[in-house]
Amino acid sequence: MEINDFFTPDEKQQLPVLYRKLLQLSGEALRKDDCRKLKKLIISAIQSKPIPRDVFGLNPIIKDMQTAVIVAEEIGMRRASILGLMLHDPVQNGTYTSEQAAEDFGEDVAGIIRGLIRINELYSRSPTVESENFRNLLLSFAEDMRVILIMIANRVNVMRQIKDCPNDEARRKAANEAAYLYAPLAHKLGLYKLKSELEDLSLKYTEHDVYYHIKDKLNETKASRDRYIATFIQPIQKKLEEAGLKFHIKGRTKSIHSIYQKMKKQKCPFEGVYDLFAIRVILDSAPDKEKQECWQVYSIVTDMYQPNPKRLRDWLSVPKSNGYESLHITVMGPEGKWVEVQIRTERMDDIAERGLAAHWRYKGIKGESGLDEWLTSVREALESSDNNLEAMDRFKLELYEDEVFVFTPKGDLFKLPKGATVLDFAFHIHTNLGCRCTGAKVNGKNVPLRHLLQSGDQVEVMTSTTQTPKQDWLNIVTTSKARTKIRQALKEMAARQHDFAKETLERKFRNRKIEYDDSTMMRLIKRMGFKVVTEFYQSIADGALDVNDIIDRYLEQQKRDSDTHDEIQYRSAESYNLPTPQPDENGSKEDVLIIDRNLKGIDFKLAKCCNPIYGDDVFGFVSVTGGIKIHRCDCPNAAELHARFGYRIVKARWAGKSQGTQYPITLHVVGHDDIGIVTNITSIISKESGVNLRSIGIDSHDGLFSGNLTIMVEDTGHLETHNKKLRTVKGVKQVTRN
Q1: Which residue, of 155, 188, 206, is where some domain finishes?
Q2: Which tens digit of pLDDT belongs to each residue from 492-537?
Q3: What is the pTM for the complete model shown?
Q4: Which of 124, 133, 355, 486 has the greatest number of beta carbons closer than 10 A?
Q5: Residue 31: which of 146, 116, 109, 89 has the closest Cα?
Q6: How many structural domains is the chain composed of?
């Protein structure tokens, strides 16, 4: 293949620009001949076997160069990371090997290449990339932390490049991965700038209208915001200059994603978010005077503006585990507005923007000789548990000594304790699968039930319809879940055997025209030495007792009993009342909801988190218990369910017409605290046909009221009509559905 055919005209223009920028960023770190060797290898790889473009149609060489610029410029890594990133595609494509890379560029580069390839293989296996298990497996596979940092940079680059991509489904998937996987990783590593960019771009691609609504609002209010910041800063600037401090001040607007999160959390419109920006005072301080001068600025600011003592955040004395140092205070500014002020030095600001990568730059070390110390601090940061990202708190960089992660043939990922066997895995997926398991194919090879699983194994469970659980299986499994299921299965098997043995015995009685009497049989069983009835029937099932022999003994027992009793009491048939069957309540009920491919008659429950009603756009979610929960498409949990458990989502739609069933709905009402407003609201509800008031709670404060009403309605049509009437009540400003 001609190299000119590999690049589009636009890509040919980008090549020299990216090449010069990479040389500028990494020139000092690269060794002699690195560039020449790299160029030769990439040209050879393109000519011998074209490297495929990704799902977005991005050129792999251009994409890797763009990512390398981010790795060098925005994270601060150099030679090994850049070379490993540029060479992993040729190695994965089979035109170059990691052994050759180790010989040509060093083992450091080869290790990064192997890490990137292993993680690419994980992506090809698992469709549920956003699951917590996948994050854990990802970190266990990335033994070199630089691999994780390269992945974050790569995703930032992809998110920047796909804004015009026509493949909306692929773009949405990439955006969800960015939000659930890469942004939390970037946050934990202190890469706040990249983390905010990932979150904003993810919101842009998944909630397009919301993103541009907030962006437009920010642009509309920019002028007034800038004026306020200038008014706030002016007196502080004067005092700091009089104190002889070297500094600069800037205003930082909240990211669009964080504004959206605040709007959702506080259930308010854009105008209700007051802390849209923060003022940042950045000092040019000597290392030994950093803390002293930061506290000096704190004293000057709080002398001028009233501070809120509950909002003081001191990360100067005890920095965050990811290296973040700063002093945050919230003060009452002009016009009675709360303003956050962040006080830090140039060094602290660089670390806050670029993460832990900036640490070793301030120790006077050039190149990558200080990287080991930095990576150690990265490990400590990931292992710490000082923030609220619960999934991240459980991350470990060692190879997860207590857990293994295995795939199904379809790519689903499961977490099991270390030492788990094939049989544990089968029972972990489903009880029936475990009970019929005869072995498995692990990575394409047949293995027995007791085979120990390793992280990354792909397991296909083999079954047989004739297989049944065995008592010795309890010695094979290691998980309590599997043991419980095996015991339960053995118990159920024994019960079925007992029923069969009893039925066989009673059938023999009927064949020989002998009347069967329970009390006589109980006495016989006790006389034969059995302490419990189940042991007796088990002996019949096992063939240890002959049915004909038992009948003969039964007749002897009956004769013995008749010798000692003159008459036998029989129960009169007249005293027995046959129970009348109850009518089936669900038998005549039509399906109000059609699930998946027009399936009817499926049990479902309405989710409590969003309380869907007839007429809402809904979807089904298969719960762990096997039932289906119905959620609204705009449910607060919908995005996470789609991202983490996409394989458990099923389509659902309302059928026919609303059948008079009423659903509970909670409305949030806000307005002015006028006299009689509660009476007016309840009057509207009582007059509305098909709407019943279940509860009301109103809270009044400073002339405003807010409260929740729980009403019963039939469908969205009734709800919307009702809400319009509520909004006409004098004093009511807002009616929203919770």
Answers
A1: 206
A2: 888 888 888 888 888 888 888 888 777 788 888 888 888 777 778 8
A3: 0.52
A4: 355
A5: 109
A6: 6
